[in-house]
Amino acid sequence: MNRRFIVAMLGIGVALLAACGPEQLPGDYRLPDGAVYQGELRDDLFHGQGTLTWPDGRRYEGGFVDGVMQGQGRRQDADGCVYEGAFVNGQPEGEGRYQCQDTVYEGTFAGGQPVRARVTYAESGVYEGELRDWQPQGEGTWTAPDGGVYRGTFADGEIVQGEYRLNDQRVYQGEFQDGLFHGDGELFLADGERRRGPFRHGTLDGPGRLITVNDDGEENSRQGFFVNGDFFTAPDGDQQRRRQRAERVEQRLYSEERRLQRALTALVPQKPGQRDIYVLLVGGDGRQTVFQKEVEWVAERLGARWQPRGHVLTLANGDHAGFPLATRTSLREALAALDAIADPDEDLVFVHLVSHGGRDGALVLNQPGLRLNDIGPADLAQWLDDLRPRWLWLVVSACYSGQWIEPLADRRRLIFTAAAADRSSFGCGDHSDRTWFSEALYGEALEQRGPDDPEALFQAASDQVAALESEQGIEEDQRSRPDVYLGKAFLDWWRRP
């Protein structure tokens, strides 16, 4: 990015103008370096409106005063970077707009550089505030692609002191380093809990204070020790944490089969002559709580709509999940159990998958302390092919989830994905309670549109996601672009009374 092109251009322009004789310059004049000037003159100098074009592709079009670029103008550099706005003494000065590739600066310039502007970055959000040497420096606000807002003091392009906020669900106040919570700070959670102490690379680690709020609104403050974000009253918390995790993993190994079988046997048989809806929810990556929170919330939303008591099966990974683990084996057994219970011609199987997604389309399955294999769209397609053909409504909320459509497309199926095959989706961090697409789909879209018209339901959710991404300053080529497949036979069957 050639951000200092004006300084160099001014030097060239002054030298060339000094070399010109006292004769009046013609209106189309070629300078010694090959540059061509077209425009107005006064007293042998460029003056008024004119255009300078260089052989290497550089071009200035706008005002001149006494041989110097002054007033409103447009400068395009050889690499395609463009400044449009006010010039003073040959440099950007005042209000202007500079774009180089996918980065755009809009605001106040001084000495050829932006000093206070709105900066839109292709992959890292939008910054508004003070700048120095083309980087955030001083007071400003940075809105990240996931909707998180950093507000405070910036130095060398990074926030160093201030506040992070995400939809009032998670607020941090304190020191930062490399964009992470680092130093003394306090974390405020949506349920009223507050965590205060030293942060290290995004995680509380050291002596601190945990403040919780009971149902009556009374605060309970405890002094203790944080180890990788976990709170302990004793200083050997790290050892306690390792022992506790090892104990939980061991217990899960011995109890998991019973847990899964209890969940499967709790499913109620379908009633002949009516449409039963069975729901399978899968939260894949247990390292972050957002996926477990999402499947619990989706179960509530669909339960309020369809009242599927005894018709919901949830698989979710995580240290605090009370559900059977989400593994390739448990998912396959769950599908087989639903195949045995649900009538393939009368009933619907609704599957919701949420996790991180890889560029190859694979859905991440991870349980802390256990190594699990991921699941790809070809895996699910094969498992479904091994079962009876049936009506299936599949929702996949993950990055690159559009890759699930082609392998699974079938006339008896409906498929919603949170992103196109080559796009990321948003809202999958610990600061979120659910992903953006699921929030839109099962929230306002389901409330307003209902499930009777799946095409309208998807469009409403997709429009809400696009509006949120636009609001957060996410560029068009970085947006998730949710995708859909609508099997004609499915739609005909679904719309029947």
From TrEMBL:
<keyword id="KW-0677">Repeat</keyword>
<dbReference type="InterPro" id="IPR003409">
    <property type="entry name" value="MORN"/>
</dbReference>
<dbReference type="GO" id="GO:0006508">
    <property type="term" value="P:proteolysis"/>
</dbReference>
<feature type="region of interest" description="Disordered">
    <location>
        <begin position="226"/>
        <end position="245"/>
    </location>
</feature>
<dbReference type="InterPro" id="IPR029030">
    <property type="entry name" value="Caspase-like_dom_sf"/>
</dbReference>
<dbReference type="GO" id="GO:0008233">
    <property type="term" value="F:peptidase activity"/>
</dbReference>
<dbReference type="Pfam" id="PF01650">
    <property type="entry name" value="Peptidase_C13"/>
</dbReference>
<dbReference type="Pfam" id="PF02493">
    <property type="entry name" value="MORN"/>
</dbReference>
<dbReference type="InterPro" id="IPR001096">
    <property type="entry name" value="Peptidase_C13"/>
</dbReference>
<protein>
    <recommendedName>
        <fullName>Peptidase C13</fullName>
    </recommendedName>
</protein>
